[in-house]
Amino acid sequence: MTISTQSIPHFLKAIKAEIAANADEVTALDQAIGDGDHVTNLLRGLEALEKQSSELAEMEWSDALMKIGMTLMSTMGGASGSLYGSLFVAMGKEAKNNTMSLQSLAEIFHAGVQAVKTRGKAELGEKTMLDTLIPASHALNVKADAEASDVLDAIKQAAYDGMLSTKDMLATKGRASFLGERARGHIDAGARTSQLIICAIADVMEKSD
Fold it and tell me: What topology is assigned to 5-208 in CATH?
């Protein structure tokens, strides 16, 4: 399965629709243990990307991913902008001279997730977006040679399970870390939006396969 940058406008449309449809839920999660502005910031970044979607669709993957990362850094602001920016910039660097197949995507996405770990100084189990990203990356790496539908299903399930796992975690990063035990019982908003984004992209890929 080879993925073209012509799919980028479809990815962005699906992601924005999914975030908007779940905005109230995510905002409530973020207000419980965060700053409450995560959805607003994310939608601002997505709107900026939508304006560039035609241009992104004509680029090579490496250039497109780097532009996405830089745009998110400059428009989202805050910690999320820096983390999502780092994710896509690192993916862009790894994508240089690579065709975008599921096999190469496993390496490209892994590089992006490593950059988020470095930027956020966080690991699996600390109640962050990484609790979604790391399991999804692992599933993609393990399943990359399987049938495309099986790969995409595995990624979606791993992202969903990872997101749910944050509910019972203590937070050690960001504002939530000051809440101690009070952070338990709440899913991390960044883990939830990361899961929504991954599943939206996978759904588009399944339909186009």
Answer: 1.25.40
